[in-house]
Amino acid sequence: MPVSDSVDRDGEGADARDGAGTPGERPDDGLPINELFYSLQGEGTLAGVPSVFVRTSGCNLRCWFCDSYHTSWEPTHAYMSLEEILAEIESHDADHVVLTGGEPLIHEESVALLEALDDRGYHTTVETNGTIDRDAPIDLASISPKLESSTPTPERAPDDADEADAERWAERHERDRIDLEALAGLVEDYEFQLKFVVTDGDDMPEILDLLVELRDVADVPIRDDDVLLMPEGATRERLAETRTRVADLAMEHGFRYTPRLHVDLWNDAPET
Fold first, then answer.
1. Spatial separation of the C-alpha atoms in residues 33 and 17, rounded to whole Å
2. Per DSSP, what are the bridge partners of residue 31?
3. Are 247 and 237 in contact (CB under 8 A)?
4. Does 102 appear as a known binding residue?
5. What sequence ranges are listed for the domain Radical SAM core (predicted)?
6. For a tag site, which of 17, 150, 170, 175 has the least CB within 10 Å?
């Protein structure tokens, strides 16, 4: 159920409107929902598992290659109450729910949703950039730390992005994209996977350095098997350029390779 309207570009929420674009009341327990749909998990250790996806709008970062542009660079949403979200999830025959974004953990209300899903026996995956650590029942924290190669510039930004936005976000994104304290908290508190979006071998030194730092501060082991390399690309054409070299890098370094099944199957179609 794609919906459309503005949400604050800094990810903190703004005017709430209904799906028709007229002003509406924001529910006390509501979340700005960009999409809510049933599909296959396309990435990570649960790739191929039928799941309900709850995509919130708003993000505290701006990756230039973001594959959910309308949750970050141009965030759109309609507010749904917790009751409405749960009813939509329960209308699908799935045991797994993926809370994604944007960055879903910028919203405090995400905790209440995760608690309600836990009470109902769902397996929950949270897709997060690793900059926010909340106390919530999460079965799998799918953590995707953002590398330097994700930082936008006026020359490296989505086609529809405003140049001033790219300039404004470049400094903020670079400053905020790695938070070791939050990363350590997430890997200590939850079953986790570290999922890096990789373009080519130039990304590997930063990944290896970050793993050294994170292993030094975290109180739990981080195995190479917990590290997944995922090819950068939101279209089949782009994945055709990156997947083989990323697979080769995974074998070279002893990490796992994860596909992007949803892109392979449905290209860049929404609700996949």
1. 11
2. 80
3. no
4. yes
5. 46-268
6. 175
238 labelled ligand-binding:
no
Please check if 72 is assigned to a binding site. no
Is residue 40 within 8 Å of residue 46, measured between CB atoms?
no
Q: Would you say 67 is a known binding-site residue?
A: yes
- The answer on whether 221 is annotated among ligand-binding residues is no
Q: Is 146 annotated as a binding residue?
A: yes
55 carries a ligand binding annotation: yes
pTM of the model: 0.89
201 is in an annotated binding site: no
Determine if the peptide bond prior to 11 is cis (ω within 30°).
no
Q: What is the pLDDT of residue 37?
A: 97
Backbone torsion region of residue 11, taken as left when φ is above 0, otherwise alpha when ψ lies between -120 and 50, otherwise beta:
left
Phi–psi pair at 235, nearest 5 degrees: -135, 160
Confirm whether residue 63 is marked as ligand binding.
yes
Give the Cα separation of 152 and 148 in Å (integer). Answer: 9
**Amino acid identity at 260:** R
Cα–Cα distance measured from residue 272 to residue 43, given in angstroms and rounded to the nearest whole number: 12
Q: Are 28 and 101 in contact (CB under 8 A)?
A: no
| CA–centroid distance for 182 within its chain | 15
44-99 confidence digits (pLDDT tens): 999 999 999 999 999 999 999 888 888 998 888 999 999 999 999 999 999 999 99
Dihedral of alpha carbons 71, 75, 80, 81, sign: positive
